[in-house]
Amino acid sequence: MADRDHGMPEAVVRPTDELYAVNSRLARGINITVSPETFEQYRTGYRCLACHHFPQPEPFPDRCVEPYCRYPMRRDQLAQLEFEYRGDEELWPTRTDEELRDELRGQGVWLPPD
Fold this sequence. Notes:
This protein has helices spanning 36-43, 73-84, 97-104, and strands at residues 12-22, 25-33. By secondary structure, the protein is of the alpha+beta class. It has one domain (12-104). A hairpin with a 2-residue loop joins β1 and β2.
């Protein structure tokens, strides 16, 4: 494992339609899509699900080592990960324009790029 990870540059963060009550205010939910390697770090307990700190000194420490976080990783992380996991997602299409045209033919208006 790396000595210290500085963020998740490959992560894609998008807002969702979910609303949460946070300190008597409403906040929108977010959907974070990460690489399979980063997801494995969450699953094995080396990356905190709350603050995303990596690496933890051991898998699933009692609490996250970040002083501002202290998320109860051992107690809550796997259950929270299972609750939040929405499945695999392909972010960038691997199909060609021609394949997309064939798939969308007859489904309405298709506008080519440019």
